[in-house]
């Protein structure tokens, strides 16, 4: 009886950690994220990893992150129309990256390297984002920083580090909390990790607040987003429909005042239409 009870209790614990990871990533990322939840998304997997076996930690991290990417997968399939096998490869690949980072964090923490774990885990995650953004054919839309557009003080960090600095802050905060709450870590290491994390966040937020309070030192650049009405699918380049869609966007530009150096942004899915031969 005790063995069965322990088995059920362990199963519920692992399932709860995976579900919490999935829910936080689902709500904290994607096209309509709740940006503050993004900061908590890696936390359940990081919290439980040093407390359970290696296979169990692997299962929680991989399953939780993969399910949490459901919204992103739908975006790749329906909006970007990326082939199904490629979408499966992307989702599986980034879930494996998250799993490896969690296991790296677990290994360092179980060896007592508290501060190292809190720094290396976000550095590994950020490095993976950078490499996939540079080398992958579909970029790094799944970057944690993409969910922070509404948090302007945090977003200012990107002016120095790029979006990868924002991702480091997000993952690093979760890692630091997990270290402070970890078992078998002496109080001195907890305090050092906590102080370093608070100091880094304070610098980032302070820089953001100061930058937002300053008057712009350079001319303001106007940005126009052009979206032509029409069907959701991108028409074939060179067809009448493609010319019509492009003409609608160019017509908007003719009817609205523009300035030299103004940035005109067309939706991602209309980018193939820009190659359509069309004379203004």
Provide a descriptive summary of the structure in words.
This protein is mainly α. 64% of the residues lie in helices and 2% in strands. The protein is built from twelve helices and two strands; from the N terminus they run αααααααααααβαβ. A two-stranded parallel ribbon has the order 1-2. α4 packs antiparallel against α6 (84-110) and α6 (84-110) packs antiparallel against α7. The longest helix has 27 residues, at 2-28. The chain is globular.
Q: Which percent range describes the beta-strand content?
A: under 5%
Tell me roughly what share of residues is in helical segments: 55-70%
Give the uncertain stretches in residue-range form: 275-280
Radius of gyration: 23 Å
Give the integer mean of the pLDDT values: 84
How many domains comprise the coordinates?
Answer: 2
Overall, the morphology is globular
Strand order of the largest sheet: 1-2
The number of distinct helices, counting runs of at least 4 residues, comes to 12
Distance between the termini: 79 Å
- Class of secondary structure makeup: mainly alpha
The profile of the biggest β sheet is:
2 strands, parallel
- In total, the number of strands is 2
Order of helices and strands: HHHHHHHHHHHEHE
What does the secondary structure layout of this molecule look like, with pairings?
Blueprint: H1 2-28, H2 35-38, H3 43-48, H4 54-68, H5 70-79, H6 84-110, H7 114-135, H8 152-155, H9 158-161, H10 163-180, H11 187-213, E1 223-225, H12 240-255, E2 263-265
Parallel strand pairs: 1-2
Helix pairs in contact: 1-4, 4-6, 6-7, 7-10, 10-11
